[in-house]
Amino acid sequence: MIRWATDWWRRWRGRSRSPTAWLWRNAAESETVNRLARAMLSLPGEVLSAPLPWGEEAHGGGVIDLRHGAIRNVSFLPPSHSSNALPPAGGCGELRAVVAARYVPAAEISPQNVLITPGGSGALSLALEACLDPGDRVVLFDPCSPLLAWGAQSRRARLAWVPTWVEDGWCRFPRAVLERAIRRARMLLLADPVNPTGAVFHPEDREYIAWLAAAHDVLLYVDQAFAELHPRGEAARWEAIPGIRPHLLLADSLSWSHNVRGWRVGWLIGPRVVLRACQALQHLHAAVVPTPCQWLAAACLEESRPQHERPALFQRWQKQRQQAGDLFQRWGLETGDSGQGGFLWISTAALGLDGRQWAEVLERKYRLRVLPGELCGPSGRNMVRLGLLQHPGHWQEALNRLSRCLSEGKQRTSPCATAPGPFPHSPRAAFSLS
């Protein structure tokens, strides 16, 4: 029946080799197309319709994007190698050796345990595709990075959320909820430091999470993209926890720490058997990192960072955080972050708007972009994320626009605007959308 329909379609179209007929007669190709279609349909609608949180969109001038940052300029001479050579499987040996040397010697991480990936998002995509099947349970902490949730949803995984809160700069969670969620789970995805709150996991909680992952045979994926941008980030040594290496996947990149997102250089560290599967998928998708970018990344990591640079950056970010905190406090907006790291986690409940509505107001009227908190988990509906990793001039202009937005939109004379408490429950909005 299928052969007859194919021949009839080819005669009716007047073509000897119809692409549609070729797809019908090729079962493997048809299955691939169906799989890609299912993957796209499994994504939430807001992910497909909303602007991508990366890349340079074609927007008008004058927009200040607080979703990303610009930390410093990289100044060095690249090594004198030919840029026409294809990178070896797994990545260039120089870069893999430099990456392996960044971790504690007791972990015994060799270059064979390192896979160079197209950025941190590439590491996540390869790990999920290699280790997850549709219907597997994935445990996430709420709130978390949008990429973690989107990646798991694209694999049609079942999400189990574990609520968290910030306590003295530490990310805390109910252990009983995590114990229930991790049963029969396949992977546990987290970021340390946490995006967007900027908190880090307490050493005791790290060991407890690692113990649970090993006890239930769950793969633990840890994104450390913001470790260098946090005062406590270097202490997050997951690889040093005894007995966790067979279940641990570490991901990192240069996108945030060195402000070279366009190079698309990241890495994935884990057991060799997992990396072999990820490497095969990487070559199947032709998603290798260009050789010049890998050599430049190796030069970046080998370059010694001045001792005064990190404290100076942290001091500047804390000053910017204080400026923004004073502004939001004057208008009754609360923050839910740790007071450290490169982000501000702001509640919009006092405005009578959810995070997405206020983000739309800021972009449409004030040419200012922030990340709606609902993309970070169920608890982020009335939150937005602001990035502190900005040049001083851009940050000051962003504060001016935020101040103008709050002063123009707040209804000072409305009776509902004087309701007690920072989170009014009146159904009437206290902030104008017009």
Give a verbal description of the structure.
The chain is of the alpha/beta class and 434 residues long. It has two domains: 64-68 and 309-411, Aspartate Aminotransferase, domain 1 (Alpha-Beta Complex); 93-302, 3-Layer(aba) Sandwich (Aspartate Aminotransferase, domain 2), CATH 3.40.640. 38% of the residues lie in helices and 14% in strands. The protein contains 14 helices and 15 strands. The chain has helices spanning 2-13, 19-25, 27-41, 45-49, 93-100, 119-131, 146-154, 175-182, 203-215, 272-284, 291-302, 309-330, 355-366, 392-409; strands at residues 64-65, 114-117, 137-142, 158-163, 165-167, 170-172, 187-191, 200-201, 219-223, 248-253, 266-269, 343-347, 368-369, 371-372, 383-387. Helix 6 crosses helix 10 (272-284). The radius of gyration is 24 Å and the shape is globular. The termini are far apart. Residues 13-30, 45-59, 72-83 and 411-434 have low confidence and may be disordered.
